[in-house]
Amino acid sequence: MEDLQDAILQSIIVKTDAKCTAKFGCVSQRWYSLASDDHLWCRFCAQDFNISSRLDPTGSPCSSYKVRASAVFVPEESDLQESDDKYYFFYSIRMCLVRQEKISEGAMLSSCQLSRRHWVIRANDTIIADIHGDAVIGKYPYLKEGGDVFVYQSCCPLSTSSGSIEGDFTFVPGRLDKPDGPEFSVRVAPFLLQIPQYIF
């Protein structure tokens, strides 16, 4: 019976947009699992978010990099009695290199490694942090064409019930200790930090 219910729910999810699917995933752990399908979010990234656009050295966008961002409110870690940082959000970032791409005459890109990150964090519409740093959670993920997706989670406390995060990742083709070309950036469009309408 549960398999039938899941099939019905999935048929509904695929007809919605990214925002509705994100809200859907806040209902329960089971619904979150259904709403977290990688194939579904790859479609959203391509159609709705434009959060996977690589800028080559000439400034032209490319499509071989996929970066998926999602966030969820964590009531268990939030304390509404606090004057600051009373709302706690967890967010997840997934990144991968999905196909080979020509980066210069006679050269093909089949791997890259993360060098730096840049985040702009807003509480409501006010910028509260502009962060530049090396790596993510102390790691410099190495991405290969068709290889595993790199996933990491972090958290963001806010003094307001809504906000957003946006920024970019800087990669080098090949490896940091042996680059195959000039570094490039992958933009991450704003993703919302927002309390859901219902908390179960």
Total strands: the figure is 13
Tally of contiguous helical segments: 4
Main sheet characteristics: 8 strands, antiparallel
Classify the beta-strand content into a percent band.
over 45%
Mean pLDDT, rounded to whole units?
77
Q: Give me the secondary-structure category.
A: alpha+beta
Distance between the termini: 23 Å
Poorly predicted runs? 46-63, 101-106
Radius of gyration: 18 Å
Describe, in short, the structure shown:
By secondary structure, this protein is of the alpha+beta class. It has helices at 2-13, 18-24, 29-35, 38-49; strands at 54-55, 61-62, 65-73, 87-97, 101-104, 107-109, 111-123, 126-134, 142-144, 150-158, 162-175, 178-179, 184-194.
General description of the model:
This protein has 200 residues and is of the alpha+beta class. 19% of the residues lie in helices and 46% in strands. The chain has four helices and 13 strands. It has helices spanning 2-13, 18-24, 29-35, 38-49; strands at 54-55, 61-62, 65-73, 87-97, 101-104, 107-109, 111-123, 126-134, 142-144, 150-158, 162-175, 178-179, 184-194. Strands 1, 2, 7, 8, 9, 11, 12 and 13 form an eight-stranded antiparallel beta sheet that branches. Strands 3-4-10 form a three-stranded antiparallel beta sheet. A two-stranded antiparallel ribbon has the order 5-6. A hairpin with a 2-residue loop joins strand 11 and strand 12 (178-179). It is flat, with a radius of gyration of 18 Å.
